[in-house]
Structure formats: C-alpha cells, structure tokens
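In response to a reviewer's request, we include the raw inputs and outputs for one of the modeled complexes. The two entities were modeled together in a single run.
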Amino acid sequence: MIPAYFSGAAGAEKAARRILIAEDEFLLRLDAADSMRRFGWDVVEVSSADEAIELLRYNVTFDILLTDIDMPGQADGLDLARYVRLHHPEMKIAIMSGNSEAQPIDPKLCELFLVKPVWNVAEMLTKVIEGDQNAK
Amino acid sequence: MQNEEAETILVASSDALQRSVIAKYLRECGYSVIEATSLEEAKVAIGHYEIDVVVSDTEMRDGTGFDLSTHIRSKSRSIEIILTQSLVKTAQVAGDLCEQGPLEQPYHPQRLVDEIKRLRALR
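The model returned the following structure tokens for the whole complex.
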C-alpha cells in the first residue's frame, strides 16, 4: 500500500500520527526522528524550512510540525510556522530553539515551545495531539 | 537506529519528496534507514553509524554522489554504494533491496514512481 501521508488516495493505508521534523542539526534530527518512529509515528525529515514548505506545497499533510527556528535558507522556522498556520491550519506546531533567550514568539504561532536539548519529545508531542482530541 | 537487527541503509538525496517516500518504503521492507539531505550529512552519517548500503543521488545540493563514493571508499571497502540518477532508477534500486530484505515488499516499486509523480503534479 502507498503511505497514506503521501498518497491521501482512497484505500490508502491508515497511517499513524504524522510528523514533519524540520531541523538542520543532522544528528539531533535523526535522534528526534528515531524517537518518534519508536513511538509508532510516521516521520518525514527535512533540514530546512524551505524544504519543508516545498514538501507542504505538494499537498502532503501532517498532524504536527516540529521545527527549529534558525536554519539555513531563505525561510526560518518562524516563517515555516506562519506558512503552516496559513495553508495547513489543521496542523499543530511545535517550535524548538537552542536559545532560551530567543526572540519572543507569538503564542498563536505554536501549540508548544521547546528549548533544546529536547528530551521525551515524542511524549510531549503526543500530549499536544491528544490534548486537542480531548478538547473536541 | 530503529531496528538494531536490520541492515542499515543510508538514503542520500536533496529531494525531500523522493527521499521520504523511498526511505519509508525501505523501512516497510524491514531495513533501518538513515536519511541524509546533503553530501555533508551523508558524510556525517558514514562517520557515526555502521552503514551497510548507501543509496545516493548523483546530484545533491552541496556535492555529488561521486564525491560521496570517494569519501566512503577512503573510509570503508565494505559499504555497498548505489548511485542513482532518476526517480525510476531509484525506485528500482529500492525494489531490488526490498526483495533481499527481511520483510515482504509492501508494494511494487512502480507505485513509488507513480505516487511521487502524482504528488509532483498536484503542486
């Protein structure tokens, strides 16, 4: 079967929770992605906001975006979050930064803000998703 | 990484859509898969993990698959390197790997090609 998060086609496999991770620190991204997969999530990894936006323009959808702020390229993680809010309002957003003194972030821009290094990221993101489902 | 028992495949490609679909397919065939978005990331992966097979695009945003091959051969003779230049070839490579993999192929590799082409057309 075709991965549901890529296909969206009728009859496609019912996918697990889907996450898009945008992080340019390679080993950190691998670690986060591996952690999420161990939790049964479908994970798509990109190393820049530009790459994430490119992917989202293919109408590929996710339950949640986990993004760093500072990444190489034209757009940064905050630009990516704004893009997602505008074009994929159904997606939850978690923003992470290595700098706890980072510029103030509009609380409407994300459901969760994390300071790196991030531990138990899968548990925290699960709570974001489940919290939303419980609220319905 | 995900499955300590499985062979590890490094998928190196700067094409996010192609890389993600191919990597997911290989995982569903039972492999442990590491995704590198660039030559530099691929080199880091080679230095940090025990890689059995590398499937790399010939062109990446910061270098070529040949650069990667040269780097790998300077470190290891045992890593199998497969360079691919087109989506169809990459899907065939993934299909061939899956035939040798620990699990049954989840779907025919041509469907990878069809799916990626369909998504590209949606843009």
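As requested, we also summarize the result in words. Residues 8-12 of chain A have pLDDT under 50 and may be disordered. Chain A has one domain: 18-135.
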